[in-house]
Input
Amino acid sequence: MSLLVEALRKKIPAYRDTIKEFGKTHGEKEISKVTVGALLGGQRGVLGLLCDTSLVPPDKGLIIRGIPLMDLVDKLPEETLWLLLTGDLPTAAELKDLQADLDKRSKVPEYVWKMLEAFPKDSHPMAVFNTLILAMERESKFRARYDEGMKKDVYWEPALEDSLDIIAKIHTIGAAVYRWKYDLGPRIDPKPGLDWGANYAHMMGIKDPTGAVARLMRLYMVLHSDHEGGNVSAHTSHCVASALSDPYYAISAGLNGLAGPLHGLANQECLAWLEMVVKQFNGAPTDEQLDKFARETLDSGRVIPGYGHAVLRITDPRFIAFRKFGEKEGLKSDVFKLACQVYDVVPKILQTIQKIKDPWPNVDAMSGSLIYGYGITQAQYYTVMFGVSRALGMCSQLVMSRAWNEPIERPKSMTFEDLKAKVK
Ligand code: HAX
Output
């Protein structure tokens, strides 16, 4: 038995019992209200989900299992995964055990590569990536055990098995999509013994003489790993898994949500926006030119990608962590410089628009420009990197939900006529 399973077997029964007991005692207590504004406004502020892996206080940003993100920037993605799942950082022995376990699970089935080759080259990398994850559903241990009639209390174990199988392969698949999509040569196999984040960079085949790309990839994978339960990707995967669809279905569903421009695809859109700026001004703009360009974007009815957030009301600490990384590494890149300049200009404009609740940058305002500076210039691919990382959080949330036997999600809807009658 792996040390991770051992750790979780110690914790999960008590976790489940406590939640069950809590539900019995406090089941009728009201914790949130749903206004008409919330119903028509994407349920903002409605407290309707339990998620123990992480929390996003509007004035603080991401906190993973009680640890603020800024205290995790030097951790490996595998350490973050252990933290997300168990609530503790792993010891050196636990980390090694998890890494060895992931190594053992890393072989991608051959049919996945055949499918990859069959895609039209103009397919969006996210569509290809998501399809390949879903294609592996036949490997699901959760579904096999469910069909055999497993007991509810052990659902989390094959859910964890599937999750680790997915995580062990997802960076290999992501890297292969990159090399295939941009004709960069044959796939590169994972290097045994190399950590998960660095291996992703290695398999993408990015030149990395100083090790900076591996460092960036580790950071990227930690920063994007989780963002509590209500964002589109987490919530979608959570909802799908609540029907006991196995993790392959659930993660792929979450990734499909991540592919939207108001969510994960914003990093692609950010880079496109910066490229438009450079094209318009034939190079670096002045602050005045940037201000004018941003206002024109808003006047044309479009959003400034990378700015604003449904929950946050401060500069996203993930933005700050990325920026610090670029500065610390002495990144000399015009796009990175421009993204920093946008931060000086755009919030001032957004602050003057009353309806915008958060004028500050989110993670996407910096991630793409940083990656670009390290030679990953194909913006359409960026959301795949986000997805590789977000699988850590989605899988962890899914395991925790099965651990406490969360029931199938089924909020009630109403017609507009019903709504009008209720308000009267
Ligand atoms: N530029 C222009 N308008 C913006 C804006 C921006 N960056 N951010 C918000 N607004 C607008 C909204 O479109 C909305 O306008 P309407 O009422 O006319 O529809 C209004 O301001 C109120 O929005 P809000 O309450 O402040 O924000 P929401 O919770 O509705 O939406 C979004 C949050 C992130 C979707 C929004 O800020 C946005 O579209 N930002 C740009 C896209 C982006 O960066 N998305 C990535 C978010 C982080 C993430 O999930 N990454 O994966």
Q: What stands out?
A: The radius of gyration is 22 Å. The longest strand covers residues 54-55. The chain has 19 helices and three strands. The first helix runs from residue 3 to 26.
